[in-house]
Amino acid sequence: MDTLRVQFGIILAGCLVASTSFAGPFDLYGAGPRGSAMGAQSASSGDAWSIYYNVAGLADSTPGFSIGGFATHNNAQILLKARPGGYEIPDIEGARYGTPSGEEPNARRDTDDIAPIYALQFSGVTSLGIERLRLGFIAHLPTTELLVLKTHFADERERLSSNQLQFELIDGQSRRFAAEAGLAYRATDWLSVGIGGTFLTGANVGTDVFVRDPTDQSNTDINADVTTENRWGLLAGVQVALPLNLRLGLSYRGPVSFRIQGENEILVSGAAGTETQRIDWTPKYSPSSFNLGASWEIGAFEIAADARWIRWSEYRDTQSQRPEFSDVLSSRLGLEYDTSDESRLRLGLGWDPSPVPDQTGRTNYVDNSRFLASIGSSHDLLVAGLGLEWSWFLQFQFLMERETDKVALDTHPECAPGVSEICDEVPDSAINPQTGLAYPEAQGLQTGNPGFPGYVSGGWIGALGMEVRF
Hints:
mainly beta, Porin, 4 helices, 17 strands, disordered N terminus
C-alpha cells in the first residue's frame, strides 16, 4: 500500500506538471526510447510513452517510473542564392519607401548554426490498485531553454529583423517543455481504451504606452496587463487484440498551440486620442492527427507499422497567419527482435512528406520532406537487487534537398496584405513632388525579401537518448 501511495503521488505530480505544459518535441523525434527507435507504436506500445502514440496502449504497461537523457545534433541548412544587382531598395532623397538596402540591422545570411537541444525525460505509470486501470504521465524537460518563444515573418518584412530564413517546422517548434497525461482501461481481454490530454496556457497581453516626446522614444511610460488562459489538447485511442498475435490501434491527437493575443494602446503627448496596435502571435503549434497502426508478433520478432494523417492545413505560423499547407500522410515501420530473454534490438524507418508547397512567390516557409532511420535496444539488469531496464536509441533524419527559385514576373504588385507574388516595396507610381514625375529609381522591382532570388535547404538532424526504468 505504501508503494501504491508513492506511485500515486508521483503520477499525480506528473499530471499537475502537465497542466503547465506546451506541445512538445515528440512530434519530431518520437516519445521514449522504444518509440524513437521503432517509430510505429499505435498498436505496439505498452509503456508510459504510449500516451503520445496511442493512450490506450497504456493499459498494457507495467507500473513504474523512468528517467532519461536526450540530445540532438542539427546539421540542417538554408543556403541563400546570391542576389543579382538592380533590385535594391533605393534611398530616395526627401522620400522614404522602406529602409534602404544596406541599412538593415543585420546582413542577409545563411541559416547553418542551429543549436542542439539537451533535455531530461521522465515517465511514470500507476495502477491505483485496480488491475485493469493505468494512469500515467510523460515529460520532456530541456536543461538549457525551458521554452523558446520566437516569431518571424515569412516575407520581405523579415529583412528588418534577422534578415535570414527559418525552418518552419523542425527547429523552433521543438524547443519547448512538454508533458502529457493519460488514463487507460482494459475493458476486455481484447479491447483497451484510453483518454488523455496536453494542457497548455495561452496569454492575453495589454499595454498602455505613453510617449512623452515623439523625437525621444527612449523616454516612455509603459504599464502591462497580462493574463493566462487554459487550453486542452485531447488524446484518445483504442487498441484491439486479434487472433494470430495481431493488434490494431487507432488514436487521435487534438491540436495544441501557444498563442499570445492582445493590444497596445499608445498615447503620444499632445496627440488627440490613442492608437491601438494589435498583438497576435502563435510561436508554437501542433496540428491534429489520426494514427492507424498494426503490429504482429511472430516468434522472437515483432513487426509494427503506422500511418498518420496530419492536418497541416489548420496550421498557424508564428504571426498567427494560416499559410496554404497541405494535409499529409506520414508512415513508420518498426521491428523488435528479442535477442535473449533479457535484451531486445529495435530498428525503425519512416517517411515524413513536407506539407509546405513550393515557395516561388512572396513567402519563405522553409521545410523539407524527411526520411528517418533509427536503431536502439533495451536490456533487463539487476543492480543491488533492484530490477532495471536500460534502453537507448539513435535516430537520423535526412532532409531531402529542396531548391527554391522565385518566379520572375513581367510586372510585380505592390506589397500589401493578401499579395502572394514577389512584391514591389517601392511602387513604380511613386511621384517626385518637386518634378511631378515618377522616380527613376522606383521603376521595376525593388525587394529586400531575404529569400529572393531563391535558396536551397537540406542536411540532416540526429537524436540520441537513454533511459533507465524501474
